[in-house]
Amino acid sequence: LSPHGCLKICVSGRVFELTLEQVQRYPDSLLADPDKMAEYYQPAIGMFFFDRNRYVFEHIMQFYQTSDGYMEFPEDVPAQLLEIELEFYRIGHRVIRKNVEIEPDPVLTVWDKGRKFFHD
């Protein structure tokens, strides 16, 4: 935890910061679980470290930064990789929206562990 109340997270060499308020919006997610997060804290670098896909994490950051749980669906990420990362961070059951640039009228989709998207 940084002095200004942020989580400093290094994902495969790239540093990200999230406020506690942003993380605590989703109390069942990995980043909001202090006991589980303790396993990833690296005192030598003074932050949490994940050897995970940093490109996907940029989209996960967007999820945490929006108050409505918005996540831009990265079309160029293989579905299996996205599923693995979302399950790892324990946000796989949240709402995802398709990229507005690809689909002018974004369709809300619900992530299902069976790897299907259902349109609302």
What can you see in these coordinates?
With 120 residues, this protein is α/β, with parallel strands linked by helices. The longest helix is centred in the middle third of the chain and has 12 residues. The chain starts with 5 loop residues before the first strand and ends with a strand. The C terminus is likely disordered. It contains 4 helices and 8 strands. The strands form 2 sheets. It has a 4-stranded mixed sheet.
Keyphrases for this structure?
globular, alpha/beta, single chain, four-stranded mixed sheet, 120 residues, 8 strands
The total strand number stands at: 8
Q: What is the average of the pLDDT values?
A: 77
- Rounded to the nearest angstrom, the distance between the terminal CA atoms is 38 Å
User: Roughly what fraction of the amino acids lie in strands?
Assistant: 25-35%
- One letter per element, helices H and strands E, the order comes to EEHHEEHEHEEE
CA radius of gyration is 15 Å
Alpha-beta content class: alpha/beta
Report strand order across the widest sheet: 2-1-4-3
The DSSP helix count reads 4
Question: Biggest β-sheet: count, sense, barrel?
Answer: 4 strands, mixed
Unreliable segments (pLDDT under 50, ≥5 consecutive)? 97-120
Helix percentage: 25-40%
What is the approximate shape?
A: globular
